[in-house]
Amino acid sequence: MQDCATTFGSCTVFEMANEKTEALPPPPWQRVPERGKGRRRDPLTREAIVKTGLEVLDERGLAGFSMRRVAEKLDTGAASLYWHVGSKDGLLDLIMEEVMEEQVENLPEPDPERWQEQLKEVARAMRRTILSHRDIVQVSVGRIPMGPNALRLSEGVLAILRAGGVPDELAVQSFLLMISAINGFTLDEAGYEQAGVETAPPLEEAAEMVKGYLGSLPAEQFPNLTEVAGAFAETDQDARFELLLDLFVDGLAAKAAEGG
């Protein structure tokens, strides 16, 4: 197989997945320190720190995440963590990269005849991954995901879009918009259950309350809200997400057919 470290542009995402991540240059904004091998002899590794950090995030959420808690779970001191990952933000960068790997594993081989359905498959996998890791969307805010796994995810999705004939500019912008749409949807979806607001009623109960309230409004002032009040009781998040995908992909396909 060709060396993707020197011929990056001609390698597919699937070929790159088999290459060592060290072959990729670090992005200029990287907050994780570069460490030479063999400079420490403790058994702690960056991989173990990231794995444990993700466990702490899943258990406690972003508000309860701290280097001290990660260190306690590893039975070590926080100073050891800082040597390996640089800072709390550096560790969160690595956790984001770890989560990205789960999404890379779901990338299909580009099929021009199925590009629209493949894009939906990728979006569904992104949603599943996000929902399986507490507050990971909040972690992503303000970060530029350009680690090896993030690059492979971008490469794989762009390969699907370009194979389907989507013009380059539209492919890039639609990919970024898709991420924003999924993040926004899942932030709202997971946030309701993970916010920790004890007074919030169950989703189904809240939807019925909204339906009842809107239906009770004076019809002469709010004719549209009162007539469609029943639709606000819909709580099937899977169906709602599928509608989002249909609207997004159908619109993208139509725009691509126009030439972008």
The major β-sheet equals:
none
Round the Cα radius of gyration to an integer and report it.
Answer: 22 Å
The overall pLDDT average reads 85
**Helix and strand composition category:** mainly alpha
Number of helices: 12
End-to-end gap: 35 Å
Low-confidence segments, ≥5 residues, pLDDT <50? 1-21
Roughly what fraction of the amino acids lie in strands?
A: under 5%
Record field, number of beta strands: 0
Order of helices and strands: HHHHHHHHHHHH
Overall outline: flat
SSE diagram, text form:
Blueprint: H1 13-16, H2 46-60, H3 67-73, H4 78-85, H5 88-104, H6 115-131, H7 136-140, H8 148-163, H9 168-194, H10 203-216, H11 223-227, H12 237-257
Describe the protein's architecture and organization.
With 260 residues, the chain is mostly helical. Helices cover 60% and strands 0% of the residues. It is built from twelve helices and no strands. The protein has helices spanning 13-16, 46-60, 67-73, 78-85, 88-104, 115-131, 136-140, 148-163, 168-194, 203-216, 223-227, 237-257. The protein is flat. Residues 1-21 have low confidence and may be disordered.
Identify the notable features of this structure and list them briefly.
260 residues; mainly alpha; 12 helices; disordered N terminus
Summarize the structure in short.
The protein has 260 residues and is mostly helical. The chain contains twelve helices and no strands.
